[in-house]
Each structure stands twice: as C-alpha cells, then as structure tokens.
Amino acid sequence: MTGSLLAGLMLALQVQAAEPMRLISADAGATNMIVALGLADSLVAVDVTSPASGDLAELPRIGYHRNLSAEGLLSLSPTHLVGTDHMGPDTTLSVLEGAGIELIRLPAAYSLPALESNLKTMAEALGREAQAQSLLDRFAAQTAELQTHSLKGNKVAFILSARGGFRLAGAGSNAGQAMIDLLGADNVADFENYRTVSMESLLAMEPDVILVAGEMSGDPAAALLDSQPLLAHTPAGKRGHIYSVDGASLVAGLSLAALDEAERVANAVGNPDPSSH
Predict the structure, then answer these.
(1) Residue 56 φ/ψ, nearest 5 degrees
(2) Residue 136: partners with Cβ closer than 8 Å, 6 or more residues away
(3) Domain check: are 172 and 101 in the same one?
(4) Number of domains in the chain
(5) Average pLDDT over the chain, rounded to whole?
(6) Cβ–Cβ under 8 Å, residues 122 and 33
(7) The model's pTM
(8) Are residues 223 and 151 in the same domain?
(9) Same domain, 192 and 267
C-alpha cells in the first residue's frame, strides 16, 4: 500500500469517526435516557410519546414505536435508532440495518436491575460511560429513598386512562405492576395484565392508593374523579391518595422518569398535599 493511499484511508476513517451521531428515539423512556446522558443535541427525531417541550419541541415526530416507517426514518439520515424490543415491524428494522443504521434495542424494563442494565447498555453503545456514572449515582440514591419511604402494606390500584376509558393493571410483566413494585406496595388486583373493571368492582377492592396514568398535559386523576365520583368513596379517595402519573414515563416499562414519578408519589402519600395529586 502506497503512502498516499494509506494517508487517504486514514483520513477517510478520521472523517467517519468524527461524523456526529444522529439519533432517533422510538419511545419516551429512550428519549429520557438520551437527554439524561447529555445527547439532546444529537436527537434528530423522537416518537409521539416523548415530551414536546424544551429542546424537543421542534423535532420531527416519527409515530408509534410498533409501526415505524423505514422510508420516513431513512429520510432523516440517522446513525442510530434507539428504543426497546417493542420497536417494529421487523421488516422496517431489517431495512434500517441494511442501510447501516445502528439499532439499540433495549429489553423493556420491569424492575430496577433491568432499568440499571439498560442505562449501562445505552451509555456504552453511545460512548457516554463517564456521563452515565452520575446517573447511576442518582439512581442508587433514588432507590434508597424509595426503600426508606416504602408503601409496604398499602394496596395500590394502577389505572391506565386513555381515550375516555380505563383499565386496571394486574400482576405480571407490565408497567403498572412495575410502578407498584417500585413503591414496595401490593397490587389490589388479583388477575394478570390489564383488564377493564367496573367502578363497583374497584370499590370492593378497597385500594389505599390509586394511581392514574395518562397524558400529563391534563390531570388524569382529576378527570377520572370527575367522570367516576364513586372513587371518592374508596379508602384512597377518603384519604386524598389518588394521584396522576405521567403515562409517558411507563410507555415501554420503567424509565428514569418513572423513578422520579415513584419518588413523588411515595413522598406525597407520606405527606398528603392536594397540590401533589
């Protein structure tokens, strides 16, 4: 290999290495983690569940993470697509991989160890191990705080509110159960996954705390109370322990934002204040 050819190859490699990352996030949890790692400026698009505020307000929206369009994503010239193993369809992901786009597919996290593992995996994939250390330190502190303010012995109803209806989270691998586990509480439901239940059934379950996940642009808990006034007669309603939870923090399992939500709820239950609902 001639000196000039070698020099040209080295220059090409340097240019490639210096190419800035162009990240597309396919769910709110991934977006939250990318921003926390200091890479907000590297985002070129986010999904519809990611917050539309601050640095993200002007970014294109790519739609639902299970129904991604290869053509639409390729038009944004990304270097990486980041999300969970809920991303799809597989045909779209295959096209993106064939185009040289790196896919970072994290397993949906339904436990603290799984969330911590995802943070480490993403930091390594994006070359942000140093920045991740402060997040891991905060993660440990929040975990300790949640253990200190555990809601052990409390029966919690986790309600997913959407499109005018609602479903109650049962046991198993779902975001509602994961949030209840974060709080150290017991799930009021005795079934698996999510299920539509009547208000009378919920009253009979006698939840001590009710969490209502939905769009935080409104107030999911207040909206549900307005439409279902019987909730005020539950133990949770009588004690003022009905709280809104940001549904975006739980789109594909636990996220760093879900830790913040759990900490807020735990503190609110310990120090009831109507403004915290």
Answers:
(1) -95, -10
(2) 116, 119, 120
(3) no
(4) 2
(5) 89
(6) yes
(7) 0.86
(8) yes
(9) yes
